[in-house]
Design a protein that fits this description.
112 residues; mainly beta; 7-stranded mixed β-sheet; 4-stranded antiparallel β-sheet; globular
Length: 112
């Protein structure tokens, strides 16, 4: 059973930074591409960023490009999302995802 546990969310002022972490178990982590997705109340789910399984390719939504950085530590089965220059519109519950599977999210609130 895949388990994805995100952490690191919190309340931060606009312009601040947070680093999200996701502990992954139940899969051979380095065999899979991984993603961060977010969902804010009343808004559609958004794929924020993805990282490939081995060649380092990444994807970022236009809304976060240049501000967020995704990374992974295959030795520790961990996925990260460094979020800088946060904006109020970044407020959402953030989830890490493995394909269609997403774990428990972590809430990010950015105050103006």
């Amino acid at each position: 059973e895949v388990q994805l546990q995100a952490s690191g969310g919190g309340l931060v002022q606009a312009g601040g930074s947070l680093r999200l972490s996701c502990a992954v178990s139940g899969i051979t982590f380095d065999d899979y591409a991984m993603s961060w997705i977010r969902q804010a109340p009343g808004k559609e789910r958004e794929v924020v960023s993805c990282t490939s399984k081995s060649d380092g390719q990444t994807y970022y939504a236009d809304s976060v490009k240049g501000r967020f950085t995704i990374s992974r530590d295959d030795a520790k089965d961990m996925l990260y999302l460094q979020m800088n220059s946060l904006k109020p519109e970044d407020s959402a519950v953030y989830y890490c995802a493995n394909g269609a599977t997403r774990g428990q999210g972590t809430l990010v609130t950015v105050s103006s």
